[in-house]
Specification:
4 copies of one chain form a homotetramer. Helices cover 28% and strands 27% of the residues of chain A. Chain A is α/β, with parallel strands linked by helices. Chain A folds into 2 domains: 5-151 and 315-346, Quinone Oxidoreductase, Chain A, domain 1 (Alpha-Beta Complex); 158-291, NAD(P)-binding Rossmann-like Domain (Rossmann fold, 3-Layer(aba) Sandwich), CATH 3.40.50. In chain A, α9 (248-257) links the parallel β14 (238-243) and β15. The mean pLDDT of chain A is 96. β17 (288-291) of chain C pairs antiparallel with β17 of chain D, so a sheet runs across the interface.
Chain lengths: 352, 352, 352, 352
């Protein structure tokens, strides 16, 4: 391969689809590093941008390299970055935060008001090379294989949501068993939850949920609040509900199934305004609701890395499909189908 | 007065209104005390029960003595209660909790799943005498006059909502300046909030809000998120929003005006399911929403009592109207008008 | 057996030892229940009282029935207690709290300023029957055998200490592997700790620690801060240290081994004032230290019960010795030896 | 003045004292800014370094410019810093943190394991010009005069300690009324503490404590736990104790005076290992102890700035002495006397 050129999946115009192009290898600027991408995984956001739905059309300004969840090896550093980082295995935090806004200044950088996101606001990870700020390249121990390292960003969403409250000895409902919900089920199991009940429409994903550590997996049409409470073994309601699906019905189920003074953490993005019974569901029962976005910088990365590196969570079953970079469109469509676990795009990774 | 009989405002039948009747003085059972009521205040709930709206018709089973917010003097104790409590000045917690449900057992008795409420589920406080569990009779120092002591239960809602998060050096929005919102403004000011912005439709209540410590009081039609942020002196959004009105529009304003990673505490009861933009308002900005009900048992009572007893909050301006028990209907209608502060029913209180 | 008499281990006089006597079966007063004791376990406190050390001589006023950790069946209830509780299997909370002090009133009843303790301040559990307040009799599911149920009070100390901070994905040091330290190791493992390092002088107990879930068990003379950090796999120091031994050296090790901004929870009772380097150990590194006493009422009991009932923690290996009530002195001396796990006194328990 | 030269208070050799020298004006490196110093204030650390006590001899490597607490105007920026910052009024955070250690990565940068401190590890603030990382130059609103801005770093210690727990409606003990303890008293008053009791040996400082908002100021020889509790109006003990003196006796007083399940925050640095009764003082009463160092980055700066900018705390009374840079030795000796409030060194500040 020509060391000055690289492959990249480019959306050239504001329309559906993208093309595999050749681009010059980018140089890292001050404070940045260049990563040789080993593997990337497909996120629902990637599907939206590829399909160019209404949200994507509003948000994204082509031309742009797509993709964001990835892992690889640092191969060059910009001015001011420790040159010993060359050769470091890293996973990539895809939120580039400003460091100056009120949230960034007070320990909540994950909620940065000026965040720029790889694959949305600047060139992303479906490419041989990627340039990111040095702090966004998170070191990964040798024992973590590429296909797991590439999942750490997405798994970080699961960790952030799950560990937003204590789970040990708590009863837990998870609505949605896409890859992030499945990761949350694994975290809840690793954290010693008293019971983990998953609600999910896809039978494949329900089966995967049980494999990842759920005690029960229900279809939405059989999962009212009573059924959830019964499955959790606690008639008073679950202590914690994690909404990972983006479905307003699921959000309402979380509020109905949680116990008085319980907690609901919401990662799923409902497409439109969702009506809920605030008086009964939130106020009169003293329920706490936590919106969750991104990953805490960097507590979540530390937690996620330790969970996989020390064998407390095994993400391997999540990877149900793998494609080379040339077949990125098949990867996107497989993820779009709603029955897969995590879909991996293998780019430059050797073993491990 | 015949010591074996007493006056009581009774709803005899499932229909609007109530009558001032004579009833036998009740005897306290085991673990209970009898309180000679000095003063009671009128709550929105009392108005609903009096007017017999849809909610009241579903919830209340006459016959019943109305009213719940009150203060008075312990005059008799039941079996197992320290007889030295006779003569004690007390304010009354109106939630009688079960002590056995999951919430009660884990420090969240305010969210008891089996709560019974004075004036709704058992005889209330618009009467010369009232019987409650001994633990529900909270001691009040001598320096707190009856008209303030009678407000402690209602003020407790304000304290619970306001102190559900740190307020010192924080920018605060309060939507709704009914008596509870006004109390919250006073607490925020006492707690050293950086700024306190109130949004309220009644001009009288806006004026009262400024008197209770708000820095700015806006009418709803001039109060979009930008105006609130400007009034709070923080373009990034307020750190904390307290929803005390029950209006879905106000709830949406809270979510729009709060900063990324900020907090919203909700005490107001929206009458129907309220649609909010969860993705933008809660999830993507990492906002925390806390439903608030009742008063923490008994941290809130301790806090509320200290705030008034040590002169940190002056509740006197809240009392805008006073009526004798015979004029309870006028008291109810004055409270129903939406422009009053707190309406007091004076029953048996001498000085102080 | 005469149903009006029972066996009880009595300390009759302020001196070492105790005798197995016959006493009338006690009647439960208002709000109390009588428990038919199935099994009790031996605590270090029981040893102190039996041996009549200086602390015991100061604290205890004979005559008194000894013992406190126990489980059994409710067989009679006093006035005001639900008679359906007869037949209920229970474990016993041995702290009888006042419910009126500042700590009790603000959610911290475990730190009651007027606590009275079974076997110290009122008759205890080394007896066929025991009378306690009804709230102190905590229901235990059928699947939990007596020898585990009897350990729940002691295990509750471990749960309270361990869950005083998040443990999932955290590195944890535990100093002292007596029964409580061993229980804490099991909780840390169940909670998904990244690593659990135990420091303990007894080789038997170190072996037991590994069996209960520790990743490493070090002898004190090989365990300086560096060795602990190495064993935990985190050169910066452990996130959490749990001091369960009462040794000042162990406390100093906890402060030396914990990372900057880490947490130390202390359950062990140092016999005398212990000198530590506050400036370096606590202040300049921003460390938090939490004193732990008793069990949170009743969150800890809920957590402990779920952990054992749902199979997340197996306490059976902790029970290394069993004696009938007649051999209580051998039970005491075995516990006093410092090499046992938990020593059980079997009183009236059938299966399970 | 020659724009290429500046005055600086230099410790040239490892011995007591320092000299006012002329040095070249330093250039800011990448990511740094140069500040034209308006005013600096004297910290106990400056006194130690000037007097060259044992601790200083161990820690400091001359030659070095002394001083660290200061405020001034950005007059030049290094590569990568927004040039619009030139002209910005700033106060200076004196802890230069590494950003890479575990504490820095998990939201606890104030406890950085590799911190370098101005005036100890790199050139400090008793000079016409100072170079610091751009993030260490905290913007200060126009309304805050230089003599207050210069105090923000020191006041930040007070804010960090005081706001390490809720203070509204809480009873508070503060041991030590040096400038930081006095600042803490002002914060506690602004935060709506139920009562603020200060213990301090200097009569001048006790008087100042009352002026800053304390309700009572006791001399150490009259301040046992009972006297503190009486002065706080709470026989059960104070909710919160803040140790700001570094005296072991004061630490023991904090532990004795705090209530069961109360909190003690410790900023004072005891010179040697301090023996406390851990069993009685911390463990058996379930007390939490928080070591406090530096300022939370940057929540504390935000809080401190708002408290002074919005008039909630008036720091002006703290400034009891002012000296020009030429008289820095008198400034140091005045601070060393133990009776002053804050001693200011005026360097280049005009109005305000």
């Amino acid at each position: 391969m020509d060391e000055r050129a690289m492959r990249a999946v480019r959306k050239e115009r504001p329309e559906p689809g993208a093309v595999l192009s050749r681009l010059p290898v980018p140089e890292p600027g001050p404070g940045e590093v260049r990563v040789r991408v080993a593997a990337a995984s497909v996120c629902g956001t990637d599907v939206s941008v590829w399909h160019w739905n209404e949200w994507a059309a509003r948000r994204v300004r082509p031309p742009l390299t797509l993709g964001h969840e990835c892992a690889g090896t640092v191969e060059a550093v910009g001015a001011g970055v420790d040159p010993r980082r060359v050769g470091e295995r890293v996973a990539v935090e895809t939120h580039v935060v400003c460091g100056r806004c009120l949230a960034c200044r007070t320990g909540d950088g994950h909620a940065c008001a000026n965040v720029r996101i790889l694959g949305l606001d600047r060139d992303g990870a479906f490419a041989d090379r990627l340039v990111v700020p040095a702090t966004n390249a998170w070191p990964v121990p040798d024992g973590v294989p590429w296909h797991v390292a590439a999942l750490l960003e997405s798994f970080g969403n699961a960790v952030h949501t799950a560990l937003a409250q204590p789970l040990t000895a708590r009863t837990v409902l998870i609505t949605g068993a896409g890859p992030t919900g499945l990761g949350a089920a694994a975290v809840a199991r690793a954290a010693g939850a008293a019971s983990v009940v998953v609600v999910e429409s896809s039978p494949e994903r329900r089966a995967l949920a049980l494999r990842m550590g759920a005690d029960a997996a229900l279809a939405p049409d059989e999962a009212d609040a009573g059924a959830v409470r019964a499955a959790a073994g606690e008639a008073s309601g679950v202590d914690v509900a994690l909404e990972m699906s983006g479905s307003p019905d699921a959000l309402r189920l979380c509020l109905a199934a949680v116990r008085s003074a319980g907690r609901v953490a919401v990662l799923g993005l409902a497409p439109t305004a969702a009506a809920v019974d605030w008086a009964e569901g939130v106020v009169m029962r003293g329920v706490a609701v936590q919106g969750v976005t991104g990953r805490r910088l960097w507590q979540t990365w530390l937690d996620a890395t330790r969970l996989v590196a020390r064998g407390l969570v095994d993400l391997s079953p999540l990877v149900t499909h793998r494609f080379p970079l040339e077949e990125v469109e098949r990867a996107i469509e497989t993820a779009a189908g709603g029955h897969a676990g995590k879909v991996l795009v293998e780019i430059g990774g050797g073993s491990p």
